[in-house]
Design a protein that fits this description.
By secondary structure, the protein is an alpha+beta fold. It has 4 helices and 3 strands, in the order βααββαα. A hairpin with a 2-residue loop joins strand 2 (30-35) and strand 3 (38-44). The protein is globular. The termini are far apart.
């Protein structure tokens, strides 16, 4: 499964503003909730639930690694 970075939302953001998550699902068809900067949950329209395929651990690790590399400066700043 390919994950569009526009559909990624942190778990804290999803907690605060679930209506935003619903809007993302309406626009893109799904939303990915990140926990500890790792894809943890996926939200899809109920009518499309039967068509979901499971991502392998390797795919998830590759995506997480790509995002960490892309946002390395931000993570370093947060680590201070």
């Amino acid at each position: 499964m390919t994950i569009d970075t526009n559909t990624m939302v942190s778990i804290s953001e999803a907690n605060k503003n679930f209506s935003n998550v619903a809007k993302i699902v309406d626009q893109y068809g799904s939303a990915v909730i990140l926990k500890n900067n790792t894809p943890k949950y996926i939200i899809v329209e109920f009518s499309k639930a039967d068509t979901i395929e499971e991502a392998s651990d390797e795919e998830l690790l590759a995506i997480s690694s790509k995002l960490m590399k892309r946002n390395k400066k931000v993570y370093q700043e947060l680590a201070k």
